Amino acid sequence: MPQNRRFLLQRRPDGEPVPEDFELVTEETPQLADGQFLIRNHYASLDPAMRGWMDAGGNYMPPVPLGDAMRASTIGVVEESKAEGFEKGQWVMGLNALEDYSISMVGGFTQPIDPSLVPEITNYLSIFGAVGMTAYFGFLEVCEPKEGETVLVTGAAGAVGSLVGQLAKIHGCRVVGIAGGPEKCARLTEKYGFDAAIDYKGKDESALTEAIAQACPKGVDVIFENVGGAILDAGLMNLNLYARVGLCGLISEYNTEAVGARNLWNLIVTRSSIRGLLVMDFVERFPEGAAKMGEWAASHGLTIDEHVDEGLEGAYDSFMRLFAGSNDGKMILKIA
Amino acid sequence: MPQNRRFLLQRRPDGEPVPEDFELVTEETPQLADGQFLIRNHYASLDPAMRGWMDAGGNYMPPVPLGDAMRASTIGVVEESKAEGFEKGQWVMGLNALEDYSISMVGGFTQPIDPSLVPEITNYLSIFGAVGMTAYFGFLEVCEPKEGETVLVTGAAGAVGSLVGQLAKIHGCRVVGIAGGPEKCARLTEKYGFDAAIDYKGKDESALTEAIAQACPKGVDVIFENVGGAILDAGLMNLNLYARVGLCGLISEYNTEAVGARNLWNLIVTRSSIRGLLVMDFVERFPEGAAKMGEWAASHGLTIDEHVDEGLEGAYDSFMRLFAGSNDGKMILKIA
């Protein structure tokens, strides 16, 4: 069996993860048992939710055990198989780990994928993967946008946010995105078709509130929230009556103590709601979502940027881009 | 026309209201114009929402103008009338002010009431008024409780909270209330039929979280939230999957800078929602709600405590009881 470089979680981060919380080691790959197969990982998805999996409490998944490789969605090729339905050379996608080789089994989270159905194999980690399905089901089903409504997307230049903005345009909404820095803001309007972009950098809550009011003269009917903190609070101040806030993430709070949402009282004034959303709830409907996303990719040029960094040895730096906002699109780590 | 003692808002409170923000003055009652009628106010409802009406921004209503009498729901008797349908001697209820006499008009917010339909005329300000309708529609329609579910009520010894707890029992739920101090907690279980009571005093968020977990061994399916701050945060940590938080009030935050909800991330983990509720949305269905509350008052002994203070001259002290928690039931001011 081949040598296996594995990116281990060695210590639970206290706030922002530091390099010493992890270790890249080389181990022997264990022999396969019956029903198992070995995957040569080619790409891994790096997602904000992974920060939660590092904590002792876990979130919607159990925590990654200390000393184990960091859990991640990967795509790769079956290298050896003692499992029916998984042949050597077949492309697969699944919840594996940041490592050269992962062992999976029939009935696990790993499924075959067909490279001929997508322009790039990495699209399975973006537009046709959890990211694309989060945008599709989280926005369309949880936020229930209607034609002519105004949609505010935070973390709008991110993988999910940029897709939500495009879906909002396809559904006849005015869409305003919040992102960090002039380059990302330019990307929102020029590439993804947002009607307006707001640069949150250098703006306090009051300035953000005013900027949203100017960009959304008819108020905000839907917020697709990825960030939290002052950005969420500023959005709450601009809600129309009976507005819907789809809570997808709170990336501003994952590494620090939460500052907390201080403007919840405006939910009462506007009779609006905040609803937490998790793509897992829609797993059985992924084929429907992927088909629709494929249609819109063809008919409307629906697109997602992918930011591919190379090398397991840079896994820490690549993961931390998500919190610094220095990635330009869906963050993907090329392993081989 | 009679002399009119009026409790004026003279300055917008900065945080907690102080006596100097108000002034009790005596003015002449103006002559009635055609279509108007004069009400001798007997009772006024004192409600946390009035704090919001004192601020320049207002909330779901415009702010009370400086120098005007403080807006309040009152019940009283028509003293003189130049309005069709309002006869001298008739009992009425409406949105008037803290003053001996109010002038209203046809088509305003004042409606005739029938004292023979209720045990006490003040019940029109409690169980059959906005408070009762908030509990009825806010809990049953917004929170959608199901038989066998666990309901957590904060501010549970308050006017709305104590009714919500009783409605939850009528609907077959396990209901746990949070209140301040042993006396209020005893009232919850002994008088209103709550299954358990938690005294929030002396407990930080972590201790509250643990106390809720112990009182709700199957988790929390519905929160009826009146308080906010650490109490809301502790509730959020105990949510079951797909739980509903009905946001009725945030009384802990009305006089101070909000500390903010720091555990919204658990809405994502549990795919739960927070929805703001305002009884105004259900005005057209009040007759339906009042009829049901009357039925349950008879069949289940549904009850509400009323805390009646006497005298316009004590309006400030009586209003501040709402924030100190020193009222035992729906806060009502007897004017005459």
Quick synopsis:
The first copy, chain A, has helices at residues 49-53, 130-142, 159-170, 182-190, 205-215, 229-236, 265-270, 286-300, 315-324, and strands at residues 3-9, 22-28, 36-45, 71-81, 91-97, 101-105, 111-112, 150-154, 174-179, 196-199, 220-225, 239-247, 273-276, 306-310, 330-334.
Describe this structure in words.
Two copies of one chain form a homodimer. Chain A starts with a strand and ends with a strand. The first copy, chain A, is built from nine helices and 15 strands. Chain A has helices spanning 49-53, 130-142, 159-170, 182-190, 205-215, 229-236, 265-270, 286-300, 315-324; strands at residues 3-9, 22-28, 36-45, 71-81, 91-97, 101-105, 111-112, 150-154, 174-179, 196-199, 220-225, 239-247, 273-276, 306-310, 330-334. By secondary structure, the first copy, chain A, is of the alpha/beta class. Chain A is globular. Chain A binds chain B through residues 59-60, 228, 247-250, 253, 257-278, 281, and chain B through 59-60, 228, 247-250, 253, 257-278, 281. Strand 13 of chain A pairs antiparallel with strand 13 of chain B.
